[in-house]
Design goal:
Structural class: alpha/beta
CATH class: Alpha Beta
Helix content: 25-40%
Order of helices and strands: EEEHHEHEHEHEHE
Number of helices: 6
Distance between the termini: 26 Å
Shape: globular
Number of domains: 1
CATH topology: TIM Barrel
Strand order of the largest sheet: 3-4-5-6-7-8
Largest sheet: 6 strands, parallel
CATH superfamily: NADP-dependent oxidoreductase domain
Strand content: 15-25%
Number of strands: 8
CATH architecture: Alpha-Beta Barrel
C-alpha cells in the first residue's frame, strides 16, 4: 500500500480509505445504503488491515451514531493499527443545540463519538458542514482545545465552500489556532 502525508501534516495515511456509512443502516436514509452489522464490519476491517488500508472514515450522523459504535467494536484490539476519522455538525437530536458548530455541540458530539468508538482519542475530527450561525472563532477555538487536550489529533472540514475554508484558515493563522489540515469534498464515481 502506498502512504502519503495527510494534508500539511506528518501523519501518513494510505492512498485508499474505508468509508463506514454502510455500518448500521438503522434509519430510513442510511438503511438504503447498507446494513453492515458488527460481524460483517469486523471481517471487512480485517481485510482492509491485511492489505494496508488502516484509515477508516465515519461520522456521528451515520445511522445516528450506530456506524461509529459498530466501527468501535470492529476495531477492538486493533485500535493502535488504525486511523479513525469522524465528523460532527449535523442534527443528532431534537434539541436546539443538537446540531451545528458551537462549543456546546462540538464538545458534546466529540465526547459522544469517543464513547461510541470506544477510544480515548480521534485521529482526525472534521466539521461535517459549515455552520453560518456560529462564529468561526468559537468553532476553531473549541477544536484547538480538543487537540490540546489530546482527545483529537488533527482537524479538518467537509462540505465547505472554498471561501468558508479560506476564511477559517485565515482566522486560525491570525489567532494561532489549530488549522484544518484536510478538506473532504464530495468526490464519487457514483456522482
Amino acid at each position: 500500500m502506498e502512504y502519503r502525508n495527510l494534508g500539511n501534516s506528518g501523519l501518513k495515511v494510505p492512498v485508499l480509505s474505508y468509508g463506514t456509512a454502510t455500518f448500521g443502516g438503522t434509519n430510513e436514509f442510511f438503511g438504503k445504503w447498507g446494513q453492515t452489522d458488527v460481524n460483517e464490519a469486523s471481517r471487512l476491517i480485517d481485510i482492509c488491515l491485511e492489505r494496508g488500508v488502516n484509515f477508516f472514515d465515519t461520522a456521528n450522523v451515520y445511522s445516528q451514531g450506530d456506524s461509529e459504535a459498530i466501527l468501535g467494536k470492529a476495531l477492538k484490539g486493533k485500535r493502535n493499527e488504525s486511523i479513525i476519522a469522524t465528523k460532527s455538525t449535523f442534527q443528532m437530536g431534537e434539541g436546539p443545540n443538537d446540531k451545528g458548530s458551537s462549543r456546546f455541540h462540538i464538545i458534546k458530539a466529540c465526547e459522544d463519538s469517543l464513547k461510541r468508538l470506544e477510544t480515548d482519542y480521534i485521529d482526525l475530527y472534521l466539521m461535517h458542514g459549515f455552520d453560518a450561525k456560529t462564529p468561526i472563532e468559537e468553532t476553531l477555538s473549541t477544536l484547538d482545545q480538543l487537540v490540546k487536550s489530546g482527545k483529537v489529533r488533527y482537524i479538518g472540514c467537509s462540505n465547505f465552500a472554498a471561501w468558508q475554508l479560506m476564511k477559517s484558515l485565515s482566522i486560525s493563522e491570525r489567532l494561532n489556532l489549530e488549522k484544518y489540515i484536510v478538506y473532504q469534498g464530495y468526490y464519487s464515481l457514483v456522482g
